Structure of Large ribosomal subunit protein uL3m:
Amino acid sequence: MTYNPLYRRTGLIGIKQGMTSIFNELNQQIPVTLIKIDRNQVSGDKDGYLQLSSTDTDKLSKPLSKHFQSLNIHPKKHSKEFKVSNESKIQIGTELSAAHFVPGQFVDVQATSNGKGFSGVMKRHNFKGLRATHGTSISHRSQGSTGANQDPGRVFPGKKMAGRMGGETTTVQNLKIVRIDTQNNTILVKGSIPGRDNGTIYIKDAIKKLVIDGQNKFKKLGSQPEHTSKALPWGVDTLPFPAATQEMAASYPHILQAPAAPKKDD
């Protein structure tokens, strides 16, 4: 079955390896984040969701260990469900590769952001603070009045105040994949992603970058082949469908890199 932009593919579970920079064929320096895809295997399929598990471990509870044993899969440390279309189902036990994504395409990356502890309003919400002169004493970085009066006599929920900052599930959208190392099962994404090194992240196809004739992919336009080329970014012809397995990746080159986009004429 060939890829269609109206189909939703599964994502992958990765481990953030840190940042570096590479050069393309035009000698342009590109900052990238390395994402390691560590033994992603399909471990469940139910109600339009595909469950993936990654990172082998021997430290699991008995119920979870028996669950993986019943599937004939080595126990895994992380599991995640991805919403997929009916055409994107994959057999349980299949191991996926980093080549599931294609250099040049855009992805959405989800992770837990760095926790910064209890922070004031200037750091947390970018308040300007109070005046530095004219009688202001020891409250230069305070938030000032919270705006409550006798009516309503309370502070509304969601008011921007000091509190815990960071440590939340954060999604960065429309990041470009620059290079894929099929031998080391590593994805290089342009720019930064949330979280600390060695943290678990979830990566999937960018929804907002799939555009067909100016309409998003949820618009029912049929399944004509010409829609695929219009929906995918420049330099990307198609995506592996329903997924790229380790067996498929063995026949790929060790390094897959996105071509540099041609410069627009002035």
Notes: Helices lie at 62-70, 121-125, 225-231, 246-249. The chain has two domains: 12-115+167-257, 116-165. Residues 28 and 70 are 50 Å apart (CA to CA). The chain has a mean pLDDT of 89.
